[in-house]
Amino acid sequence: MESTEESLRSALQEENRRFSDLHPTLKTHGLIVEKIIGRGAYSWVMKAIDKNRKKYVAVKMISKRTANENLIVKFIPRELDVIRELRHPHIIRFYDYIETTLWFYTVMQYAEEGTLLQLIKKQKKLSECQTLIYFSQLADALEYVHKRGIAHRDIKCENIVLDASDTLKLIDFGFACRVRSTGNKSGDKVPSPYFSTTFCGSLAYASPELLSLTPYEPQPCDVWATGVVLYVMLFGRPPFSNSKNVTVLLEFISKGLCIPEGNKVSADVEQLMRQIFVPVGKRLNAAQLRRCSWMQRATRKTRSTENMKNGVACNGITDRKRVKLDDANKT
After folding, report:
1. Helix, strand, or coil (residue 296)
2. How far apart are CA 248 and CA 224, in angstroms?
3. Nearest to residue 279, comparing CAs of 248, 254, 243?
4. Do 228 and 299 meet the contact criterion of CB atoms below 8 Å apart?
5. In the chain, what's the furthest Cα-to-Cα distance?
6. What does the alpha-carbon distance between residue 104 and residue 26 come to, in Å, rounded to a whole number?
7. Per the database record, which ranges form the Protein kinase domain (predicted)?
8. What is the rounded distance in angstroms from the CA atom of residue 136 to the CA atom of residue 142?
9. What are the tens digits of pLDDT across the range 37-91?
10. What is the pTM of this model?
11. How many CB atoms neighbour CB 212 within 10 A?
12. DSSP H or E run through 99
């Protein structure tokens, strides 16, 4: 009798063949689909060989038949507008965009090592040294995006990937928006400060102002979400709660940051988190993240994965006894 694992593998292989056969458009653009590497509510992400570029690429495909009108009319055009201009070592590289009567295809850089979430699940949690390097790279990307008048609005461990050299890349700008005018050709002006009323992202990464369903500034919400990524890297769990209930989440947030018992981190990184998980008016911005004392340990010279492995980038990090975690925060 066929095992569950074998059944799943067989089903996946069949689905890979089906996608390859159903997308001849990709072949005409020199793209040979190999397998599915991710999926969402309306999209699939495929690993493909790009014959023209002579390397592997990732192809995100969105079906026009299943995607809702808001996604097609609002979010896809907005994502393309943003990703076409972004060029940064810690942001996934955009290559091409293809549209047919039935599908949207976005061709981008392929990240061989998978998502940050997959790495955390494998290791349970990351060392502070490893976290410092990845967070430095994420902060670099965030500052670059924010300086260009853009907010990501869906930062989470699933939307951060690692390439073959173990370098971090921020992906998925599907909810991104401009928060100020950039002098685009259409002449449209975006007011500054820009307030959004659209709930974007995942509950566990949402700031209190976003959870409160009031008009919010998107960029400070990005900083909060980046802080959640930092906490998850260090401790392997969200900082407040996994609850899907907004009221419960807000209650946990109101109690303040707690460090899990038995975990040792430096005073500097704890101070950084306490400057992120605060009301929006007191929260650090992306540029201030880069200037904090903990981040100064990872100078531009040492901000690399290779130096992470040999410890150069982590000079000065010391451990100390952590505070006890409130039993209520163990849910």
Report:
1. helix
2. 18
3. 254
4. no
5. 65
6. 11
7. 31-295
8. 10
9. 988 778 899 999 999 999 999 999 998 988 888 889 899 999 999 999 999 999 9
10. 0.82
11. 12
12. strand 94-99
Which structure tokens are listed for 174?
Answer: 């599907």
In the block, tokens 């007191």 appear at 282
Q: Catalogue the active-site residues.
A: 154
Closest CA to 322 of 249, 285, 277, 269: 269
Q: Report d(CA 219, CA 152) in Å as an integer.
A: 8
Question: Which H/E stretch holds residue 98?
Answer: strand 94-99
Contacts of 223 (CB under 8 A, 6+ apart): 142, 276, 283, 284, 285, 286, 289
The DSSP secondary structure of 6-44, one letter per residue, reads HHHHHHHHHHHHHHHHH-HHHHHTTEEEEEEEEE-SSEE
Q: State both tokens at 168.
A: 């971090």
Q: How far apart are CA 70 and CA 76, in angstroms?
A: 9
Tell me the Ramachandran region of residue 285: left when phi exceeds 0, alpha when psi lies from -120 to 50, beta otherwise: beta
- 281-317 confidence digits (pLDDT tens): 999 999 999 899 998 876 544 455 555 555 544 554 4
d(CA 168, CA 171) in angstroms, rounded, equals 10
